[in-house]
Each structure stands twice: as structure tokens, then as C-alpha cells.
Amino acid sequence: MAETVVFSRPQALAAVQTHYCPGCTHGVIHRMVAEVIDELGLRARTVGIAPVGCSVLAYNYFAMDFHEASHGRAPAVATGIKRARPDLIVFTYQGDGDLASIGMAEIVHCANRGEKVTVVFVNNAIYGMTGGQMAPTTMPGQVATTCPLGRDVEQAGHPIRVVEMISTLRTPAFVARASVHTPLYAVNAKEMLRRAFRYQKDGTCFSLVEVLSTCPTNWGMPPAEATRWLEKTMMPYYPLGVFKTPERGDRAPRPLAPEEAVCRTM
Amino acid sequence: MAKKLMKGCEAIGEAAIHAGCKLFFGYPITPQNEIPEYMSHRLPQVGGTFVQAESEVAASNMLYGASGSGERVLTSSSSPGISLMMEAVSYLAGSELPVVIVNIMRAGPGLGGILPSQSDYFQATKGGGHGDYRLLVLAPWSVQEAADLVQDAFDLADFYRNPVMVLGDGLIGQMMEPVEFGAERVPCKLLAPKTWAATGCDGSRPTNIVNSLFLDPEVLEQHNIKLKAKYDRMVRDEVRFAEYFTDEPYDLLLVAYGTVARVCSTAIEDLREQGVKAGLIRPVSLFPFPYAAVRAAAAKAKAVLVVELSSGQMIEDVQLALRGAKPVYFKGRQGGMLISPDEVAESIREVLAGKAAEVVNG
Predict the structure, then answer these.
(1) Domains of chain B
(2) Which of A20, B55, B182, B189 is surrounded by the fewest CB atoms within 10 Å?
(3) ipTM for the whole complex
């Protein structure tokens, strides 16, 4: 009798163990990215870019060609790859310290140029690899090793909502936020990732998917509690959904209005 | 091909295209804006791509991605912008990526000024970024040589899998001279296919990872040793220099690079007519520095005069070359001030008359 395989490791994922902590959602997100790449048949022409942060070793976990970028510069590296080889499928995998702090300029301008790359942005509201310091996405009052009394918005400002900010850019893009803290939300997150990679495959636009993620180790709570904390604390501030699609007309490029054109002739 | 009158910056851009470079990433900064401007209109004509980056930080990381994809890629900048690129330069060296970086030096430190200078010698040849690494550094003294060295730089970068810097000053970038590009370009090195590039993996080879991270110290040390062996090969095989007025006897040896060496050669020529005998050695590769050639040329002189548009940076390599064998003198201008043949001639006379102060360190 022939065997029917109902579940296996995606081809785009390497047959290795990861270093991620128990309860961390990086593993789930890696797997979903790999599944999407497999399902769209893109593996042989995909090049990924790993960040600096917990997922710095992502190049060991995906079975595909990779670049390891310096801290925050992955969108610039992605630009270089995509401009050099437009036939490649290029994605960055970045955390919140990498993308929303040190790499803010690179992500905004990569999106604004409309580079046809995909950004997987994992937001767990803290610096993980360096040991739990405050991130630009750390919640007000949230304790971190560099804000031991909790994030003081008078001193540190409010958490940055990357998806909302990127979706203000007029350049066509696909920008969405998802979460993977329960299986149902993970199914939705995978659908967002699928759309993001499909837009790139079709040569349509830049795409960014923010994925809310847990960090039980640095949040100082058991995984189940971390899941509840994400839903109770992060989700109201970081709402899930599709914020921008290339089809939505209001963001489409348009000719200069006459009053805007005046300065060009002066 | 016929000679064409070109500005240095434009010749540098055209030379890159001639060498097969189809990608330029850069950010505006004076005095090298004519390079990105030239590339922005010229590259699309040859099927290439120009991107004006949001910063030199981003531009240099775009180089990383493009080079890691196996393509030839160029950026250019000037001193403060080069400082911003130094992070990426360290990563490029660590990941062994071939790129060509043109630095049209302006006076510093800080924002400094926009006029010509040679004050980035240390940054170019001794580090600049973090970690044990070296750049191949080439310094042209004419527009034609700038065009030639830029083309060689691409071959050298690919051969050694290492960033190469072409170090010019504002004069090289701005002056116009006749330039000739050969019809059939022959690479100056025998080049292997870039099988290491991250170009997508269909399973027919192991995955390629463009990377400078080695968390295991034993593995990193082996990587460092491999890099050092490569830099040693550059020292052995890539020394370039030129000598002038050294066929006849000379009392004083001048050492200068770039456009300053041209000023020195004019001064020496003028003095020869008056019976004052000086020779000139011009390092063309600043790393590797022509230590042996400088030592040999100095052996025939009574003393050595180093001339730079800085407070004295290359002079340290000259001192290393001489190992105290000859007295060393220095003439420099800074801040974007140029040096005239008359000033150099006066320094030569002072040194030979025993009126100049010897440079003594320690």
C-alpha cells in the first residue's frame, strides 16, 4: 500500500535544530515563510537576508542562498540584490530593534522606492539576543533591562507602529500586520505572507508583513502567559489587518496637481 | 579608440562601465557629484541601474547585496561619506565581497571643507572600519591613470574577493584631460567564475551564504588567518609605483602620491635646469605600500622629502621603509590648500641647504 505523506518539513527549511528559546514564535514564522516559498515554487530562485538579532542565524535554518546583513541594513542589501538580479525573489527577515530602531531609514526608503522585495518583520516588543533591552516597540510600562521601572513614554516616547507608518507612503505596496500566538491567527499570518510573496512573484510591489511575536524569556513569563500578554497588551495597540494594498486606488501614483507643479517651473 | 577630453569624475564613471560595471549606488557629496550624475544618465543607456540611496550607509550596503549576487558594482563618495561607509567596508572585507569604492578626498576632520586633500590616507590604508582587514588602495595622478586604475580595480577586486579603493583628491575629480579607452579590454587578472555568489540554489550545489559572522572563535581565527594570507599575496604581487628623474644622480628623493606627485615632478624639472638634483618616487598602490622600492631609491640620496596634502600620514610608511637609514623631511599643506611647484622647490632647496628641520618621532 502506498504511503501518503500528510506532514513533512518544508523543502525550504534546513533539517537542523534552531537555537530559539521555548515559547518563541520565530520557529513558527520561519516554517510559514518556508511553506509559502515552497507552495509558490520559489525556492530555487529565492535569496534571503538575515538581520542582527535573535534571527541572526536564520541563514542556517532556511535551505536557500542567504546574505547576513549588518544591523538594520537588510533592506539596503535587499535593494542591492534585487537591482542586480531582478529575477531573484528577495526577502528580509528582521526584528523590531533591527528594523524599527537602527534600520529605520533603510526600511522607509526601501518601501518608498517600491523595491520589489518582501520584508518579514517580527515584532516581539523587546531586544532578544542582547538580553531584553527596551525596543522602539516596547509597550508603555513594559519592563526591560534598560527601563527597569517600565517604559516611560515621557522619556522614551510611545511605541512605533511600523505598519501604520509605512502605509502612509504613496508608493504602491502591500502592508499588513498579523500574529501567530494561536493556530487560528497563524493561519491568517500565513495567508498574509503568501500574499506578500505573491505580489513579489508577480513583480507588483514592495511587501511588508509585521508579525506580532512572543518572547517569554525576556518578557519574564511562561509561554502560555506570554501568549495572553500579547493578546491583552500588544494587540489593542498593534491592530491586525491589511493596511495597504497595491490595488487600493488612493495610494496609486498620480500626476502632479497644478498647484504642486508650480514650484517646478519657478 | 580616439582620445576624448573628459573630467576626472566622468572618466571614472566611464571606466567602470568599460570594465563591465552595470550598477552604481551612491549619495550626493561634494566634490564628486559628477560621478553619480554621470552614472545616472549613462548606466540606463547600457542596460545598467543607478540608485540614489538615502545615505552612504545604505549605498554601501546596497553594494554588499549587489556584489554578493555576483555583479560588478561601484560607489563613489568623499571623505565624510566614506566615513559613513566604513561599517559596510568592514563587512565587505569580512564577507570577502569584491566592490570598487572611489574616494575623492576633501579636507577634514569633521565636515571640514570641500577642497582637495590627502588626509584620508590612514583611513584608507590602515583600517577605517573595525577588525583585521585590508583594502587594496590605488592612487592615480592623472585622469587617464584614474580611468585605467578604476578598470584594474574591478579585476583586482574580483581576483582577491576584496574591496578595492581608488583614492583621488578633488583635483583628480574636477580637472579635464584627454582620456583613451582601449577597444578590447583585457582583464589584468585571470578571473574565476563567482561560484560563491548567492544567486538562488536549486539543490545542485550547497547553499551559498554571504556572511562575516563566525561565533566560534576557532573558526573565526581560521577565517582571519585565511584573510591575512590573502593580504600577504597582495603585498607580494600588487605593489605599484613609478620613479621619475632617478636615472641621473640625485641628492634628495621626494616621495609623493596622486596629484601632489605631479606638482613635485614640475618642481624637480625646474630645479634640474638650475643644477639642483632631486628624484621622485610615486607610490601608486598605497596598500600594498612599495616599501622596498622606496628604500632602494632612498639609498642613492642623502635625504628624503615627503610631500602630502595632510599633516603627514604617508610619511609613516616612508619611515617604516627607511628604518632610520636616511633623514626624513616633510612638506605639507592642509585644509584644502594646494601646494605649488615653487613651494616644493623652496622646500627642496631648504632641505639641501641644511635649513629644514628633520622629522624625528619618539
Answers:
(1) 4-196+226-237 (3.40.50.970), 242-352 (3.40.50.920)
(2) B182
(3) 0.96
